[in-house]
């Protein structure tokens, strides 16, 4: 089952980067090159979720007495996977169907993206029980997440959206995105507190 999750998410990640490829190339051509790291939101979230599954697939003997560096890297990957997979899973579905409400055709790819992004959000919540991140990891990911929101909407590298949404609802979308960031971070904190309470 873990291998099925790993392979399906890896393939989805590759497809996601291919989907963003044109925007990434355009960003490199027209902005400082480091802006490109903030462009492919969903596939980066999917990449980190795939890596989190990779940790679960590693030899369990490594987890018996892991080094501090191993624990820190794993914790960061898992916190990033949880917060961003939930955030962009919900965000993409909301954008697709808000566009549909405004008359944008959904098509087969819209249905495919709806299913895959809902799966991103759900699987992150399902796997959080096996995550081992700490508060430090949440703080680092929170800084990245809010900085990513700033880059998206203040520097203009947000995922490409239908014109009707950009022209009429961009400010609403910005605040919705920030709200999802806050919600994802809150979920990570609550899950951490629950885990600590159960371990005492």
Automatic annotation (TrEMBL):
InterPro entries: DUF1405 (IPR009845). Keywords: Membrane, Transmembrane, Transmembrane helix. The keyword Thylakoid does not apply. It comes from the Bacteria. Coiled coil: none annotated. It holds the Pfam family DUF1405. The chain crosses the membrane at residues 34-58, 79-98, 110-128, 135-153, 173-194. This is DUF1405 domain-containing protein. It comes from Paenibacillus phytorum. The lineage of its organism: Bacteria, Bacillati, Bacillota, Bacilli, Bacillales.
């Amino acid at each position: 089952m873990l291998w099925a999750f790993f392979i399906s998410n890896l393939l989805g990640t590759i497809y996601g980067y291919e989907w963003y490829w044109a925007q990434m190339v355009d960003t490199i051509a027209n902005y400082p090159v480091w802006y490109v790291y903030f462009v492919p939101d969903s596939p980066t979230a999917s990449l980190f979720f795939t890596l989190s599954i990779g940790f679960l697939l590693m030899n369990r003997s490594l987890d018996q007495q892991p080094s501090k560096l191993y624990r820190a890297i794993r914790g960061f990957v898992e916190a990033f996977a949880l917060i961003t997979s939930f955030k962009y899973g919900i965000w993409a579905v909301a954008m697709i169907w808000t566009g549909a409400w405004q008359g944008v055709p959904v098509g087969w790819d819209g249905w495919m993206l709806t299913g895959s992004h809902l799966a991103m959000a759900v699987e992150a919540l399902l796997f959080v029980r096996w995550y081992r991140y700490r508060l430090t990891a949440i703080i680092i990911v929170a800084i990245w997440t809010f900085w990513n929101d700033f880059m998206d909407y203040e520097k203009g590298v947000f995922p490409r959206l239908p014109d009707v949404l950009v022209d009429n609802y961009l400010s609403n979308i910005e605040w919705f995105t920030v709200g999802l960031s806050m919600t994802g971070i809150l979920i990570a904190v609550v899950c951490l507190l629950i885990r600590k309470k159960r371990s005492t």
